[in-house]
Write a structure and sequence with these properties.
Blueprint lengths: L14 H37 L6 H15 L4 H22 L6 H5 L2 H24 L4 H14 L1 H11 L3 H21 L3 H5 L3 H11 L3 H8 L4 H16 L1 H11 L19 H4 L2 H14 L5 H24 L3 H32 L4
Keywords: Cell membrane, Membrane, Transmembrane, Transmembrane helix
Subcellular location: Cell membrane
Family: Belongs to the UPF0324 family.
């Protein structure tokens, strides 16, 4: 047969249709994730109205609702692409946008000794938490998630580190779920350290900033104590949050050398270039943080961008919940609970040691 008789399509023909089909395939799953997100935000709003503080944030509620829905209903093929997109690409965009909330000005003003002490606390907490997790038999990626969540900022740190190290969704959900429970208990129990350890308001604020996972939880733990505790706690907490960027970059270099685990064993990378080792969303995070620090991202723009990042994170957590079999959580629950509890105890000891070493009055 002559090649002249074979019709050929013009170059690029069909590409808009392909792109349109790809977008259309995402819609059903995205709508399910958005519905779970809306429900989670509504529950948080009711919680804030009743208690004044979001002790259980929408991010955690979205995971729990997603798991509950997944238990009752298994998403069909038409929903899977949108759910997978929400769990990965939406989360990566959220991490990028979080950079707009980071400013170096207040950090530098806090003093060299405290800054170095906070960095040392985060590093020691990650190392100790990882060791505890491994002793308890948790796989390396799960151990990293628990360690970073404990040492930096709980749910947000786990969500940011997970795509860099190639963690499975079941590990992400387990780490967030059990860390969230301990985080709430921490907020409720931390004020007991004031009489037990004889802490001043300044010391208590430092302890809260070093140990409580989320910024709203720091406020919940310090506002009842006093304005000084709230100001100090928030500042220290922001320094911990700032550590997220360097820690994620560090783990992006470590990730290719982690032992293969199940699904992560497929297509394990060999030698990679810089832009594959350090994902685009981490570079975006650092770029926005730099722009924010030099004043090119004003407060008027930073606040809505940060809120959007938070919303996108909730959407991605809803997607992760929808992809989890609750029976998997039941199998790892005991070990993860022990790991998170042990890590939190170590963090408390290290934090109190720092307060006394720096002679914070």
């Amino acid at each position: 047969m002559s090649t002249k008789s074979i019709p050929t399509a013009p170059a690029g023909a069909g590409k808009p249709e392909v792109a349109g089909g790809r977008i259309a395939s995402l819609v059903p799953g995205l709508l399910v994730c958005l519905a779970v997100t809306a429900a989670a935000l509504a529950v948080q709003a009711l919680e804030e109205r009743a208690t004044g503080h979001p002790y259980v944030e929408a991010l955690v509620i979205a995971i729990l609702l997603g798991i509950a829905l997944r238990t009752l209903w298994s998403p069909g093929e038409r929903f899977r692409a949108g759910i997978a997109f929400s769990a990965k690409q939406v989360l990566e965009l959220a991490v990028t946008l979080l950079g707009a909330s980071i400013s170096l000005g207040a950090i530098v003003a806090s003093g060299t000794s405290l800054l170095v002490g906070i960095v040392a606390t985060v590093v020691l907490a990650i190392m100790a938490s990882y060791a505890i997790c491994r002793v308890l038999g948790l796989p390396p990626r799960m151990a990293i998630l628990v360690a970073c969540g404990n040492a930096i900022c709980g749910n947000s740190a786990i969500a940011a580190v997970a795509p860099v190290i190639g963690a499975d969704s079941k590990d992400v959900v387990a780490a967030i779920a059990f860390t969230a429970v301990l985080g709430v208990l921490m907020v409720l129990g931390l004020p007991l350290f004031i009489p037990l350890a004889g802490l001043s308001e300044h010391q208590y604020g430092t302890l809260a900033g070093l140990t409580v996972y989320a910024v709203p939880q720091v406020l919940a733990a310090t506002v009842p104590v006093g304005i000084l505790a709230t100001q100090v706690g928030t500042l220290v907490k922001l320094v911990r949050v700032l550590m997220l960027g360097p820690v994620v970059v560090a783990f992006s270099f470590i990730a290719p050398h982690l032992p293969a685990e199940g699904a992560s064993a497929k297509g394990r990378p060999g030698r990679l270039g810089f832009f594959k080792i350090v994902p685009w969303f981490i570079l975006g995070f650092l770029a926005l943080a730099t722009l924010r620090s030099v004043g090119l991202v004003p407060d008027a723009a930073s606040q809505p961008v940060t809120r959007l990042a938070g919303l996108l994170t909730v959407v991605s957590m809803a997607a992760l919940g929808l992809g989890v079999d609750v029976r998997v959580l039941a199998r790892v629950g005991g070990r993860v609970t022990l790991a998170v509890t042990g890590s939190l105890v170590v963090l408390l000891i290290v934090s109190l040691s720092l307060i006394w070493a720096l002679r914070i009055a």
